[in-house]
Specification:
This protein is an alpha/beta fold and 582 residues long. Helices cover 63% and strands 10% of the residues. The chain has 19 helices and twelve strands. The strands form three sheets. Strands 6-9-10-3-11-12 form a six-stranded mixed sheet. Strands 2-1-4-5 form a four-stranded antiparallel sheet, with no helix packed on it. Bound molecules: guanosine-5'-triphosphate and magnesium ion. Magnesium ion (MG) is lined by residues 375-376, 417, 497.
Length: 582
């Protein structure tokens, strides 16, 4: 129930359409019910009474009623479509808006494949159910009740046949639709699996190809697809059987009415015209029952979708702006105080343990350490991509949780480890950093990141179109574009998380030189696997197993830190060194 109330809130500007639709459908019912009455009049008075003028007059009324029925039907359809499509539009937008407020943690919880399914398939299911509900939810019961009343008023005795038929059919319909609903619910579940499979495969298609995993992926897909097929056939074949059974009972009912009706006509208790209308009402009643069952099944089936949609809307973003946010980041000094951090609330072993650090504004800090030692996790705390579990992280003396998030993230610019570009020109991509940046500013940032050399070689230069994910530039080029984009923010703190790993050492050192000369006041964190990327830093942090193992200059560390020395020797001597091999 709270789900229904919540979802109803998204009808918004389509309230009028939502209310007018059932009214139009009721209009259609009224007109539809009048037609059999008029028909009876034509037969009894016009044909049997040999009265041509009645035929003309009532015939004209029938035409008018048919036209009105058409009008109401079309209007109901039109408003119903608009209301349900509008409802879905609002719902999708609200979900999209909500997802934008999600933190990394919130997104991890749902997975992006599931978020996509919820925003597309689930919303479409709700849209269809909603349309069915407003068009048929009132129409079917109204038609049932009016037809029952009218037929009882024509012949109470014959109506008993109806009531028996109605009772039998109701039981039958609800039994069948209950089973069908269970099956269709499974269908939706399987759809989810299939969607997840498609999402993962298509977004990773390059890797799939590189590992020649097409056949494996195909088999996996085939299985999900086959499962869906089987359950669909099961559900559909039940429906296929249901239809003839229902039609059979309708015809049996008509036969019974004709039989009893004929007797009543002979006994002069019923006219031919009245029997005709009774037959039409019989059809109406039985159809309404089936229609109503259809509505109920559809609404029940959409409850799972409704729940999944509400989960997205109800999710509380776990990183929120404070009530009285600090709006200015004064400088780039950083302090970690007794920081513990884990990705899950109740995980036993934290990813970062007891981190204490003090960094002055403008310092260049290298971070080095084996994979999985917590380098990325450490810097992600700076711009509140995640919040600490214990202790505090301060930027320019203020806890990061007290800043306005937008201001904080503008001042702490992070080039993520797995950074992506978006479809659009190079200019457009760079302006993610600063949407008002002039062409000159963009070019300057590109120059600092040593991206100008290759951009200028492109025939379209800065207007070169980048494909989704940056798939038409090389890894090193993508990294440099991402650095340029981060520089355009003119941040107080710049974090490069393994951001020059695909750039050659000469260019790498050119980039670092331009940082030194051009943004001396910006605090720089450089995470790297290559010692050469950090050796000229003011201080180097050696991370190991979630802890700070050592902090010092290159020379200090060479002298006293064995891990650091071994890494250095392996990288400068023969062969290439790697922490994992130490
Ligand atoms: P490299 O980038 O490979 O050099 O490693 P890193 O030093 O940056 O390690 P990172 O901080 O990414 O990971 C530290 C630990 O946290 C590892 O044990 C990971 O398994 C874990 N971890 C990293 N990212 C996530 C995440 O998004 N969710 C969860 N649950 N765990 C994560
Ligand atoms: Mg990392």
């Amino acid at each position: 129930m709270p789900t229904v109330k919540k979802l109803a809130g998204y009808i918004k500007e389509y309230k009028f359409d939502t209310i007018i639709t059932p009214i139009m459908m009721l209009g259609e019912v009224v007109v539809e019910m009048m037609i059999p009455l008029l028909m009876a009049k034509i037969i009894d008075k016009g044909i049997y009474g040999k009265d041509m003028s009645t035929i003309w007059k009532v015939g004209a009324w029938m035409l008018l009623a048919a036209a009105a029925g058409l009008f109401f039907g079309i209007m109901g359809g039109k408003y119903g479509a608009s209301a349900s499509a509008g409802f879905a539009k609002n719902l999708r937008f609200a979900m999209f808006e909500k997802v934008q407020t999600y933190s990394f943690k919130n997104i991890d919880k749902f997975s992006s494949a599931s978020l996509i399914t919820r925003m597309t398939t689930d919303v479409t299911n709700l849209q269809n159910a909603f349309q069915m509900l407003i068009r048929m939810g009132m129409r079917a019961p109204a038609s049932l009740i009016v037809a029952l009343i009218l037929s009882i008023s024509i012949s109470p005795r014959l109506s008993i046949v109806y009531l028996v038929a109605v009772a039998i059919l109701t039981v039958l319909v609800f039994f069948l639709s209950g089973t069908a609903q269970r099956l269709f619910n499974q269908v939706f579940k399987r759809y989810d699996d299939l969607n997840a499979e498609v999402e993962e495969n298509v977004s990773g298609i390059r890797v799939v190809k590189a590992y020649v995993r097409e056949d494996f992926e195909k088999t996996k897909f085939e299985k999900a697809n086959e499962n869906l097929y089987k359950i669909f056939v099961k559900a559909e074949s039940l429906m296929v059987k249901a239809f003839p059974i229902m039609m059979g009972s309708v015809y049996a009912c008509i036969l019974a009415i004709s039989w009893f009706g004929a007797h009543l006509i002979i006994q002069d208790e019923l006219t031919t015209g009245e029997l005709m209308s009774m037959l039409t009402y019989c059809m109406n009643i039985l159809m309404s029952i089936m229609m109503f069952a259809g509505v109920i099944v559809m609404v029940l089936m959409s409850t799972a979708a409704a729940q999944r949609v509400c989960e997205v809307l109800d999710e509380e973003p776990d990183i929120k702006n404070p009530e009285k946010p600090v709006m200015e980041v004064k400088n780039g000094s950083v302090e970690f105080e007794n920081v513990d951090f884990s990705y899950y609330e109740n995980s036993s072993e934290p990813v970062l343990k007891d981190i204490n650090l003090k960094i002055n504004s403008g310092e260049t800090i290298g971070i080095i350490g084996p994979t999985g030692s917590g380098k990325t996790s450490l810097v992600n705390l700076l711009s509140r991509l995640y919040d600490v579990t214990k202790g505090s992280v301060k930027v320019s003396g203020v806890d990061v949780r007290d800043y306005d998030i937008v201001k904080l993230r503008d001042s702490v610019s992070v080039v993520l480890q797995n950074n992506v570009l978006f479809s659009g020109t190079i200019y457009e991509n760079l302006r993610w950093g600063d949407k008002n940046a002039s062409d000159e500013e963009c070019q300057h940032a590109a120059k600092l990141a040593c991206a100008d050399e290759f951009i200028e070689k492109f025939p379209d230069g800065y207007d070169t179109y980048i494909e989704q994910g940056g798939s038409n530039v090389s890894g090193g080029q993508r990294q440099r574009l991402c650095i340029a984009r981060a520089l355009l923010k003119k941040p107080k703190i710049l974090v490069l998380d393994d951001s020059t790993s695909a750039v050659d050492t000469t260019t790498d050192s050119k980039i670092r030189a331009s940082f030194r000369n051009d943004i001396p006041d910006t605090t720089k964190f450089i995470i790297a696997q290559r010692i050469s990327s950090v050796q000229d830093a003011d201080r180097i942090i050696v991370m190991d197993d979630g802890k700070i193992a050592d902090v010092g200059t290159h020379e200090e560390l060479l002298n006293r830190n064995e891990m650091y020395r071994e890494l250095y020797e392996s990288q400068t001597g023969a062969g290439s060194g790697d922490f994992d091999k130490v």
